[in-house]
Amino acid sequence: MNITASMVKELREMTGAGMMDCKKALSETGGDMDKAVEFLREKGLAAAEKKAGRIAAEGVIDTNVSEDGKVASIVEVNSETDFVAKNDKFKEYVAAVAAQAAKTNASNIDEFLEEKWELDPTKTVKEELSSMIAIIGENMNIRRFEKLVSENGFITSYIHGGGRIGILVELESDVVNEEVKEAGKNIAMQIAAMSPKYISRNDVAEDFIAHEKEIIKAQIKNDPANASKPENIIEKMIEGRLNKELKEICLLDQVYVKDGDMNVAKYLESVSKQVGTTITVKHFVRFETGEGLEKKTEDFAAEVAKQMGL
């Protein structure tokens, strides 16, 4: 397969690896992007997570939480430009979409778009979106939503960077006072900052752990410094690196950002002792604007040349 410069550029943005390493990885894997990422990881040239450079679409994330904290929603609405994303009318519309999502019974975005628009039942959500596109003069998209309902506890939200990142956290607690609410806000800020994938190690799938062990083993074997090390030492190294990775992706294992001397689990234990009841993180949702999307980039000089027939 012919490896193009754009493929090399994309892989470099995803992994942070060098240009020649990316070209080699694509050549070795027949241009398969996912396999090329794994190839680079096995060589110790790429991180486990894709870099944030992939997150490029414009838009706003907003949340809606009921007064009693029992029902909440989070939505992402995309726009073409950052200019529109900062527009007050656009933000008001996103807030209305979040309010709609808090009342919805839809299980997916297609069902949601066909619902009656709460603020004007003569229209569907999709038709109101079309009206807003006409008013603002730019393409927009309700990309995703999630709704949470708490049985025993409450839900808190946090918006970071003017709507770039949005968080919902459901905490279970027999007591819901100011200290517990503050703990919820602190956990939400932790999730925004550290982007965990799971609450605890118990939530991590066995096949994910097995896959990561294989990647780590390949990394260790590919390092000449480990050539003479016995298998039992290699196994200990694998476990050590896996534990380090799990500490980064599991919320309760993460170092607590407001106090580096404890992890999140210890922080929750300390608040639980203060209020006299156990506080448990039951669920969280983290949306970041444009996750997995690519922003359309324009080469102005190339566009001019094209129009002039050069």
TrEMBL record:
Broad class of where this protein is predominantly found: cytoplasm
Any single GO CC term annotated in Swiss-Prot or TrEMBL for this entry: cytoplasm
MF annotations from Gene Ontology: translation elongation factor activity
PROSITE patterns, per the entry: EF_TS_1, EF_TS_2
Residue ranges, annotated region (Involved in Mg(2+) ion dislocation from EF-Tu): 81-84
Pfam families: EF_TS
Residue ranges of every copy of the Translation elongation factor EFTs/EF1B dimerisation domain listed in the record: 72-291
Highest rank taxon of the organism: Bacteria
Entry-linked InterPro entries: EF-Ts_dimer_sf (IPR036402), Transl_elong_EFTs/EF1B (IPR001816), Transl_elong_EFTs/EF1B_dimer (IPR014039), Transl_elong_Ts_CS (IPR018101), UBA-like_sf (IPR009060)
Location relative to the cell: Cytoplasm
SUPFAM superfamilies: Elongation factor Ts (EF-Ts), dimerisation domain (SSF54713), UBA-like (SSF46934)
Keyword Amino-acid biosynthesis attached: no
Keyword Manganese in record: no
Keywords: Cytoplasm, Elongation factor, Protein biosynthesis
Family: Belongs to the EF-Ts family.
Biological role stated in the UniProt entry: Associates with the EF-Tu.GDP complex and induces the exchange of GDP to GTP. It remains bound to the aminoacyl-tRNA.EF-Tu.GTP complex up to the GTP hydrolysis stage on the ribosome.
PANTHER family: ELONGATION FACTOR TS, ELONGATION FACTOR TS, MITOCHONDRIAL
Protein name, per record: Elongation factor Ts
The organism of origin for this protein: Herbinix luporum
Name of the gene encoding the protein in the UniProt record: tsf
